[in-house]
Amino acid sequence: MKIYTRTGDAGQTGVIGGRVDKDDVRVEAYGTVDELNCFVGQAMGFMQQKQERYEDLLADLLQIQHELFDCGHDLAILNKEVRAYKVEAGLVDQLEAWIDKYDAETPDITRFILPGGSLVSSTLHVCRTVCRRAERRVVTLARTQDINPEVRRYLNRLSDLFFTIARTANFRENVADVEYARSAEVFRRK
To answer: Which NCBIfam families does this chain map to (predicted)?
Structure first.
């Protein structure tokens, strides 16, 4: 099989159920999800250097990579009568369980924190912000076209997970989160 097809040379790409321009809002949405998946892979690469410390997170992030592919699949569906959606509400339930699990591992916060700390944490914060951008692209797409609403919910919760596990990574690396100095107390204590 050849990697190149030449079918996109005129600026269009195939989606499930037709063809669209490569800068179509649908392509922007699933393309940003793909970009996010790449950053997740990068974070996992950094974690593999300390495999024993991150074994649970590596397993969860591998599952998330598969689910991000499912999100991209659903976002690439131009006509929902052609193919069934893959992302279901149960995926959000799993994200919430992981958020609760990893949040319990970290110290309480009352103020906003600055992204950074360890290399793993910094990369997970990049994942969080790219995830938020993907969510914004999906919101834009949903204004004019049908989408699987579970993808939007999934991305919203996934960015919360990235925030939580970025803090978990700092905790496991014995690196303190840095509070935003000008922040009032905005989070409730547990």
So the answer is: PduO_Nterm
